[in-house]
Structure formats: C-alpha cells, structure tokens
Amino acid sequence: MNDKRIKWITIGTVVFYLCLLIGWHFYDPVSDFTEAQPGADNRPAGHVRKADDVLIGEFFMKDSSMVMPVAGDEWPGFRGPRRDNQVVSTRNMTLEEGDFKELWSVTTGEGHAAPVISEGRVYVLDYDEGLSSDALRCFDLMTGRQLWRRWYRVPMKRNHGFSRTIPAVSHASVVTIGPEGHVMCCDKTTGAMLWSIDMKKRFSTEIPFWYTGQCPLIDNDVLVLAPAGKDTLMLGIDVKTGKTLWATPNTVNFKMSHSSVIPMTLGGMPTYVYIGVGGVCGVSAEGGQSSDVTKGNHCGQLLWSVSKWQPSVVAPSPLQISPNQVFLVAGYGAGGALLQVDRQGTSWNAVIKESYKANEGMSSEQQTPINYKGTLVTILPKDGGGMRERLAMYKPDNLHTPIWTSAADERFGLGPYIVIEDRLFALKEDGELYVYRLNAGSMTLLRKQRVFDEGIDAWGPMAYADGLLLVRDSKTIKCLRILNPSPPPSSPVAAIDVRLSPLRPPSPPFLAAPL
Fold first, then answer.
1. For the chain: N or C, fewer Cβ within 10 A?
2. pTM of the prediction?
3. For the chain, what are the domain ranges?
4. At residue 510, does pLDDT exceed 90?
5. Which among 337, 367, 427 has a CA at the least distance from the CA of 85?
6. pLDDT band at residue 291, thresholds of 50, 70 and 90?
7. Residue 355: phi, psi to the nearest 5?
8. Is the distance from CB of 283 to CB of 316 less than 8 angstroms?
9. Do 348 and 342 form a contact (C-beta atoms < 8 A)?
10. What's the rounded Cα separation, in Å, for the pair 67 and 447?
11. In this structure, are residues 226 and 233 in contact, taking their beta carbons and an 8 Å threshold?
C-alpha cells in the first residue's frame, strides 16, 4: 500500500469519528418527549398518593372458609372483660394433668401485641416486615387456622419490635391501634372495613418513642381513645359509625404515653382515668356508655387532673385500689405513687398522697398490677433492689413492705401474669410458665413448664377463654389447654356474652373504708 493511500484512509477515519463526536454532542434523545399533565394518565381521581399517606385497611385476604361464631368465654380487650386481668366463674377449674398441651402456634412479626378472643375467634394486630404493613389477623380459636387478614402499608424501623397493642371487640366490630397511631375498625366476622382514623393527622398526636402502646377501650358501643393531641385529650366514638360523640379539650397539654385508658368509679362517678405524659386525669364517663349520648350529660368533661407525678415514660395503666384511691406506677426509676380523688358535690380534689422510687415499695416497669381480693400483685422492676423481677404481694395500706415474694430463683423480668379463679399464671420473659395457687397473703408454686424453648422477650399479655391460654414471645403465639375440656356449645351463638357490657360492675374488692 502506497503512502498516498494510507494518508487518505487516515484522513477519512479521522473525519468519520469527528462527525460522530459532533453528532453525539448535538443529538437530543428526548426531543420528542412532552411534559406530563395531571390526569393525562387517566388515573381515577383520588388515587394520587403522597409519600406519608397511609390507606388504613387497604388490603384484605380471606385465607380459608369462614366458621360460624360460637358461644363461649370472652376476652374482649386489654385486661379482659372487666379490665382487671382476672377470670372468674370458669366452668371447670381442674388443671390438666402433666404439661399443658400445645394445641397450635403461629409465627408473627417481631412485637409484643397480644390477642383477644370473641365468639371462638382470635384477633391480633401483627406487623408484617416483608410487606411493611400493620395486619389485623383473625384465627379460629380451636385450630389456629387463619380465617382472614386485613392490612395496610406503613413502613417503620424496628424499635424493640413493632406492634404492642391489644385490639378491642364489641358486639359486631373489632378495633385496633397501630404502632403509628392508625385506628382501624372492621366487622369482626367478615373483616369488612368500617372506618378509620389517623391520630397523627387528625389530632396532631405525638407518637411515643417506642410506638403506640395505648390499647383501645370499647365501653359498650363507645370507643374511647386518648390521642392527647394539640386540641383533643380524649374522645368517645360510636364504634358502629365512627362518629364522634364527645371530645375532651386538651387544656392540660398532656401528650400520649404508652398507658391505656381505664374505666373506674370514683366518688360515685363513672370515670375514665388516663396517665399521660404530663400527669394523670379523670374524664367523666357519665351517660357515655352507649352510642345514645344526649345533650346535657357530663360525658367527656374533664373532672380533675394532677401534674405532680409525671414520669417521662409510662407503660402500666392506673389501678384502682379503694373507692377513692388509684395506684400509679412507671418504670425507669419512676417507682410508684398513690393518688387520692375526693368529691364534694360538683367539686373534685385530686392529690398525690405519696410517691417513692422503685426500690422503696410496690412498683412495676411494664405490666399493670392486679388487685386480687384486696391484695395487690406485681412483678417488681429491674431497678427494684434485691427483690427485683420477683413476684410480690402488698396490702393497699402498706405499699412499701411486701407480705410475700417469690423465691430468689423465680424472677420474671418484664413477663406478663393473669389470675384465673384462685390460680396465678406468670410467664418469665424467657418463655417459662409458672402456676401458683393464691392463698390469703401468699402464693404456693404448683408447677412450671417450658413453653418457648428459646423464648425471647415474652412480654405480651396473656388471654384466656374456654380452658385455653394464649401466650406469646416476640415472634410466636401459642395456644395451651390448661383446664380439662368442657362440652362444646351445641349451636352457633345467638347473642353476645353479657360480660362484654358493661365494663365496671361488679366493682373490684376494696378495703372496708378509704385509706
């Protein structure tokens, strides 16, 4: 090849690649694109979602064929039918011989949310990490078969688990509060979505650091919530319609705690008592135990409040210990306090009679104590001194010196406990179940059983119905048969058990006279 030909080939190659380079710089690959206009994609109105939008109850799945509801024991909400964490009048209080039989178990998302039981069904608010969703799950009590689930996306980060609240059931509905304050009401048989509330958006509620711990309260057909938001401290909602019946202004500027609203009768007045971040308050429940709330009653009126005792973190709920006294307790060194509420006509006086540190008397970090026949039962907190994490019994007239404690090797951490007739069932946080007989001023250990082989953070409260005990650790719910089985109901339920309504009567056993 001669030099002249090589020269022209070189020049041609340079010109070719130079043209490519110039063309690449001037070419516009999106010259035919047009700006998208709202509605151009023909998406139906209302389907555009913001980043923080949560469509509560958005998804539903029927997992298996429905079963007819059946009559039986009810555990309709936090701390049971009377909000006292006690079971009375069981059909047959003969414990199963040997180890309690496990009927079924289900795997859950990490959390401490406990189940409720109604008409042979189990309801639990779970968190599905794979779907980043709160999920209300419905199971058959006898088999553990999942019947349906309703869920909605709400991405969250793990913080000692996710869900930690207990649903509430009424005659026809089931209500849940999710970790981020999303309230969902569904038909308890079909799972149909009825109505919902986003407490952060509607009330400007500030969700506690470890997510929502407040359990919904249904007082007959009225759902009672304490959003403790910018303007609303507490409100009552018709559980059938979602309509607000009454609202209590937040004049005390409380914020939401992990504690739940507890119905009591103080000074002869039906009262909703709530420990918020900022203090304790009592709201009138007079005339508000049904959706037929009329003008002129006092329901929703703030009766009294105290701010002298205000721990920064409160998980246990208030416990009535006499006709005019309420025991208050919180963890993280806060200890306990005695609240006295007196009434003279229309005037109220609420004062903290005494308060003390966790190692100075009756206290609890997470579980709400039990008032059993005038004796108070608790598990002392980790900062409770030498008796830390033990079961303990106190008399209401001396909250500083226990009348009984469990043995040194019987320590339960943050585990739950429940009274069934004259037995106390206590679950260690590592998953070992203890059963005690309750005596006058003491307990006798009857048996213990390893329920979770490698139990972790078994903190969620227990639930009971028809001889079956539901227990959980952070990732599993189990159903144990603890009593000899009684004959099953012969027909589907015709009417809900009367123990669902009302919550207050019969009154807890108190001392003969105020302290």
1. N
2. 0.84
3. 59-500
4. no
5. 367
6. very low
7. -145, 155
8. no
9. yes
10. 35
11. yes
